[in-house]
Amino acid sequence: MNKKDIPEGILFDLDGVLYVGQQPIAGARETLEEIRAMGLKRRFITNTSTLSRNSLQLKLASLGFHISPEEIISAPQAAIFYLRQFIEPVCHLLLGDDVRPDFQEFQQSDAHADFIVIGDIGDAWSYALMNRAFQLLIDGAKLLAIHKNRFWQTEQGLQMDIGGFVTALEYASSKQAILIGKPARDFFDLALNDIALPAQRVAIVGDDIDSDIGGGQAAGMTGILVKTGKYREQYVRASKIKPDFSIASIADLPALLQML
Questions:
Q1: Distances (CA, A) of 10 to 71, 88, 163
Q2: In percent, how much of the chain has pLDDT > 90?
Q3: Pick from 91, 88, 184: nearest CA to 143
Q4: Is 233 exposed, middle or buried, given 0-12, 13-18 or 19+ CB atoms closer than 10 A?
Q5: Is the confidence at residue 90, as pLDDT, over 80?
Q6: Angstrom distance (rounded) from CA 116 to CA 133
Q7: Which domains does the chain have, with CATH numbers?
C-alpha cells in the first residue's frame, strides 16, 4: 500500500479478530476506539450463520464493543437480500434456531423447494438431513450456501465448519452452490456500497487467509492478516494468497496505519 492508498475505511471480520468464543482479543476494544478517533469508516462483516444480526450486536455489546447493528453486515443478511430478487421463493432452511426467524418472510417446505439455504446447525447434522437436502436438489432445488468455510476457531480449538457439508451436497447432486458470504465478490461489494468507498480506499482485517484476505484482495482491497483466531502459520505459508500486511493481532493495527 502506498501513500495514495492509505485507507479511509476498514472492514473487520468478527470471530477470531475481535473475539474468540466469549473472550475478546486483547486490545481489540481499544483499537476500535482509536479507529473511530482517526475518523475511518468501518463495517463489521461476518460469515457467522448461527446468530441473527441483532444477536451479534448483543454479543458484541456484552463483550464491551460499541458497535451498532447498522455497522454489521452478516452473510445471512446477504442471503435474505439475494432471495428477495425472486417472486415468492420456497425455501428449505438448514439454519440455526436464532437465524431462522429472519427468513420468515419466505415460504418454507420440506417437500419441495426452490432453494436450500444452508448454514451452521451445530450437532444437528445427520445422514437423514443430508439425504433430504440431496433429494430436494435432484428434484430441482438450488443450493444457497451462507458460506463455505473449512474450519473455525473456538475456545476448544479448531472445529470443522460447514464447507465440508456444502461440498458433499455439491458432489452428490452435481450442482454448484451459490456462495453468499466471504469470499464471494457480491458480499464484499455489498459492504463497499454500504460504506460508500471504492475498494482501493478500503482495507480488510481478518484471520482467514482464504475468505478474508483472498476474497478482499480479489475485490480490490488491501488485506491485513491477523495472527489470532483460526490463523495457523503452516496453513498460511502453504497458501498462494499473500496478505499485504500481517500483524500479530488487531491491537497492532493503529501502529500499522500510522506507518502508512
A1: 11, 36, 26
A2: 86
A3: 91
A4: exposed
A5: yes
A6: 7
A7: 3-47+182-259 (3.40.50.1000), 85-179 (3.40.50.1000)
Nearest to 65 by CA among 22, 96, 32: 32
Residue 44 pLDDT exceeds 50: yes
Which strand (E) or helix (H) includes residue 185? helix 185-195
How many beta carbons lie within 10 A of that of residue 175, not counting itself?
17
Answer whether residue 156 shows pLDDT above 80: no
Q: Mean per-residue pLDDT for 225-253?
A: 96
Q: Give the chain's radius of gyration (CA, Å).
A: 18
Q: Round to whole Å and give the CA distance between 183 and 165.
A: 17
b/e sequence 135-159, b meaning 16+ C-beta within 10 Å = ebbeeebbbbbbbbbbbbbeeeeee
- 1 has a pLDDT exceeding 80: no
Q: Are 230 and 36 in contact (CB under 8 A)?
A: no
Residues facing 202 on adjacent strands: 9
